[in-house]
Write a structure and sequence with these properties.
The radius of gyration is 21 Å and the shape is elongated. 74% of the residues lie in helices and 0% in strands. It is mainly alpha-helical.
Length: 84
């Protein structure tokens, strides 16, 4: 790491690992969730299980947000009706 700029430099042989980190962070895995993937070298099946769990978690969050959005829309309709 460059102490003046804070940039981290990677060697060519580190690029596959960096790409894997970026790809997994992009789907929402935290660094703590990534640690076993990077340190233990999880199998494809284990990684698939981890991603399936993340998918379920995200689906639950989306459903909860959709319900919340519906309640917000309903409140807005009430406000519009009251102001007429």
């Amino acid at each position: 790491m460059d102490s003046a700029t804070g940039y981290r430099y990677y060697r060519a042989q580190q690029l596959p690992r960096l790409h894997r980190i970026i790809a997994l962070k992009d789907v929402g895995l935290s660094l703590d969730e990534l640690r076993p993937v990077l340190e233990d070298g999880l199998s494809s099946d284990q990684l698939a299980e981890m991603l399936a769990a993340k998918q379920a978690q995200l689906s639950e969050r989306v459903a909860a947000d959709q319900h919340r959005l519906a309640r917000v829309k309903q409140r807005l309709r009430y406000i519009e009706l009251e102001s007429d």
